[in-house]
## 1
Amino acid sequence: MRTKQQLLTSPRRKRRGFSVAELVLVVFIMGVLSAVGLVSMNLKPTEAEAAARTFAGDVCQAESEAIARPDLGCVIKLDTAGKRYWLARPATPDTPITNVVTNKPFLVSFGSGAAGRLTDVTFGSISLGGDSVVQFDGLGSPDQTADATVEFTAGGETYYVRVAATSGVVTVTRGTVMTVGQSQSLGGAESN
């Protein structure tokens, strides 16, 4: 009969680990699952989101232009049929101002120029007080009596840009437009 010591050190009683084949199989399965997970996640913003955020930034630029040049003011005008908008002076709302960065007209056309990759973007509903213009005064306040809202759609997604009538604060909202006092969970994710 063997002693306890002999049983523990016996060649038949080896500690068994994982074989190389088993480890390779597990790593392979983890790699496949990771690849499937990454493909299913949309890591880049949608066209609708990119268009809405671009527009929101340009609204802020229009406010800044109006503050910098209170004697001239600034408007942002939409051409929904042409899928474009531009910054202009109130006296000449159909003539884009010069973009100080590019030294070209401050005109954004979805599907061309800097917004060239945004080919599927369309304007949805627009609420700008009955016209297609938001004008900012020398304090950066919009000329709207109610919040101005512009809807962007592409690829089955919708984003809204809202310009608060009282403060000029710009927000981007995914999904349904949020009204004052509405629950966050009803309106989707909101960010500034």
## 2
Amino acid sequence: MASKKNKTQKLRPSSAKKDEGDALWDEVANTVKRQASSRISPVALPAKGQKKRPLAKKIAANAKKSINLRNNTAAKIDSDNSGLVTGPANLSQPVYAGIDRSSAKKLQQGKMVLEARIDLHGLSQLAAHQRLQHFIQKSTQEGLRTILVITGKGKAGRGVLREKVPQWLSEPPLSEAIIAFGASRPQDGGAGALYVRLKRARERL
């Protein structure tokens, strides 16, 4: 047993040799110069409690904002950037689209055959709106193309329906069935009535 113990003790380095090794390592370490790091600075992490937003989600969010902005504009512009407003053509406006000049002129001059008419004069806004929707829906189902909508002029030409009806014709669901509309000729009611040109069934698809 004693011989094994002595053999083990011989394998252990002496404390003197250990001290010499440490001194040598310190000397070598002092001659080494630390090089500047070539690593790219790390990306700043989100604040605590803030979730990291993937790039795809960020792009989708920006696209949604862009779509909402376009939908909230008062007028939609043609895809060819011509500056023409799309939707039913209000022939009382200087700029409109969706109808050729020849047809627009005929409609304005009352040269298109009137196939049906409705008189909204004297009705409340709610009743007039409902009757107008029903009338246009029925007219399109029957394949009619040109109709007359009588609004009345109101006091001093400022009737409520005279102002509201063109607005209703320009908005869904009525706008989806209409090509154009404009003030009628004096013999058909003048400023108190509107000529309305309806789409064909295949044009509404």
## 3
Amino acid sequence: MPMFCRISHAPPLPFGRARRYYLGMAQMVHGVDPANNEALAELERKSGPNNFFRAMAYKPDVMGHFSKMYGSIMGPGSVDRRVKEIVYLAVSTVNECRYCTAAHLTGARKAGLSEREIEDIESETNQSFSRAEQAALHYAREMTRACADESETRDHLQQFFSEEQLVELTLVIALANFTNRFNNGLDVQVENETTVTTPVAR
């Protein structure tokens, strides 16, 4: 998302076209109270209130392993942080995941993306991006929509990315699809769009 990013206010999604985003009346499950889960409380000391982790905290072992895996994939590696955020945001817009889109708008801006580049991701024009970034965007959308890539896409990617980078890029795409589906399936709400009266599990 990124999960370790505090969202201080509800940013309007900047996209020109209307998107559906899976806006429900309420989350399917109420989050675990961090007062009753020290591991969750520790994560929220870094990120602030986090509805994604509050939902996942029903499976505390999964939550603990996932937070480490997320950091390993989205942290420093062979692929530039900017490219990771471009890909994560592209996948999240294809899947219409409001939660991940809101979080990764913040991450994208921190990675240096302009508002024009963010709009180009949503409209899929890709005109503002380098050839390598365009190849990564095409691969991310293809993998998200078809769960496979064409041989032409693979050949094009290999012009710009090493084998290690291809693995890391594919991990980012898989991670984004996982969090998108988790959040859409449970209708996890962006923190500042959840009312303060929303009950939590005890």
